[in-house]
Amino acid sequence: MEYVIGVDIGTQSTKALLVDRNGAIVAQHASAYQPDTPKPLWAEQWPSVWLKAVSECIARCVATAREAGVAAADIKAVCVSSLYGGSGIAVDNEMRPLHPCLIWMDRRATAEVEWVREHVDLERLYAITGNGVDSYYGYTKILWLREHQPEVWANTRYFLPPNAYIIYLLTGEIAVDHSSAGNIGGVYDIARRDWSDEALDMLGIPATMMPERLVESSEVVGGLLSQWCESLGLEAGTAVVAGGVDAAVATFAAGVTKPGQHVAMIGTSMCWGYLNQQVDAHHGLVAMPHVFNAQRDLYVFGGAITAGASVTWYREQFCHAEIEAARATSHGDAHRLLEEAAANVPAGADGVTFLPYLMGERSPVWDAKASGAFVGLSLFHTRAHLYRAVLEGVSFALQHNIEAGRKGARSLDDRLIVVGGAAHSDLWMQIIADVTGYRVFTIEQDVEAAMGAALLAAVGAGVTSHEAAERGWITLVERAQPDAARKALYAQRYAIYKDLYPALKPIMHRLQPT
């Protein structure tokens, strides 16, 4: 039997799976960490944290599989997917990191966004890249480094996405997959599937800072260097496959390989996306080549910066009683206690609405100065009301993106697939069904991007055919159907949700720290 390993570097943890050629899980491991947030709206990570986590996850999976009789020679490939690394990692001529990676949720590049708006032909930039202007995008973060870290800028040889940097360490080969390149935004020609010299010139970013080799997500970048054999338990020369941006890889894991299929990945953040062959940047979504059939299909998506992060923030700041009560139970899960209480609160949270803009907001708002809010509070409301309001607020943000996406999609399937930590919540799945009007499906197996990475590894190593990969390895389970009465109520509340941001925007901006 042949085996492969899929690794996903996430914002708060790295996960790895070792599976056989049919996708059956033999071993899995996760390693947790937190990004650094040295200032409000900043979020960064030194790549050494990711390297340590990746090494631990691979080594633990291999060791577990060895106990089950899997030999190192039977493990044919490793694929690494990763969070959207924003700026990427600035490395010097010796490939040494010069600065923490400014990750996707970092919003510091607001002045650089204004510079782009004032000095660059935006319509031309939209036409070339299929993407807009915001501090979410990696190219504005790169401009921030140029303006605020001149010594780093002067010594930068390349900007490498997280997965590309880790793969370089494993193989000695430098390559960037098309999804990661496209997601940087203003430096990639989305029609030509290549770096855009014209866009780079407009922005003042040297083309030499973009690695020359662009590859498919299922392409073998190189073989594992012998120096890793002992610590990882793998053979020298084991194929290392390029991978891609985690949201697209998770979408691939969910079996999405055809236009019109759509998936919401709800973890720390929320990404809702679908496959299409063209994109219009004016719709306010993000576009990049998909991780499967990248020369044909685009993954077009929008998202909320703080989805699961909003839930975690609320629990940790306001629900100490539930946390302590959970510690006294066998499962130790405060979310379960909060969900049980919130399930007894009627849809609409008795008038409370939550705006989940706790780190600014991405699409379709695109406002780094947007801030979170509870609106409609009274003495009547409890923690359970607010918890439900948080779940509903993130669901409204999802609907906001779906609305924007419908403008460019030829059609969307009548079912919505949800992956990520939110899928563990029955209540949240029902809320999403009621808010969006879609039947909600989740993956039976408790896996997401790591399984997609494993499938890409199998394709790259020839363990699985391209045709078989289109069918995927997972089983979808229907979790919720929309209720007509609740759907009508949520349509009214969603209209209020959409009205709140423009009404509060001037105040949000005035409240920003100087």
Describe this structure in words.
- By secondary structure, the protein is an alpha+beta fold.
- 39% of the residues lie in helices and 19% in strands.
- It is built from 18 helices and 23 strands.
- The strands form seven sheets. It has a seven-stranded mixed beta sheet.
- The radius of gyration is 22 Å and the shape is globular.
By DSSP, the count of extended strands is: 23
**Helix fraction by DSSP (H/I, runs of at least 4):** 25-40%
Find the structural class using helix and strand composition.
Answer: alpha+beta
- How does the major sheet shape up? 7 strands, mixed
Distance between the termini: 60 Å
Categorize the overall geometry.
Answer: globular
- Provide the CATH architecture of the largest domain: 2-Layer Sandwich
Q: Approximately how much beta-strand content do the residues carry?
A: 15-25%
The CATH superfamily label of the largest domain reads: ATPase, nucleotide binding domain
Mean pLDDT across all amino acids? 95
Write the layout of secondary structure elements.
Elements: E1 3-9, E2 13-20, E3 25-32, E4 44-45, H1 47-67, E5 75-82, E6 89-91, E7 101-102, H2 110-119, H3 122-129, H4 138-148, H5 150-155, E8 158-160, H6 162-171, E9 176-177, H7 178-183, E10 188-189, E11 194-195, H8 197-203, E12 214-215, E13 220-223, H9 229-232, E14 239-241, H10 246-253, E15 262-266, E16 270-276, E17 286-289, E18 298-304, H11 308-318, H12 320-327, H13 334-342, E19 353-355, E20 373-375, H14 383-406, E21 415-419, H15 426-436, E22 439-443, H16 449-460, H17 466-471, E23 476-480, H18 484-510
Parallel strand pairs: 1-5, 5-14, 9-12, 15-21, 21-22
Antiparallel strand pairs: 1-2, 2-3, 4-7, 6-8, 10-11, 13-14, 15-16, 16-18, 17-18, 19-20, 22-23
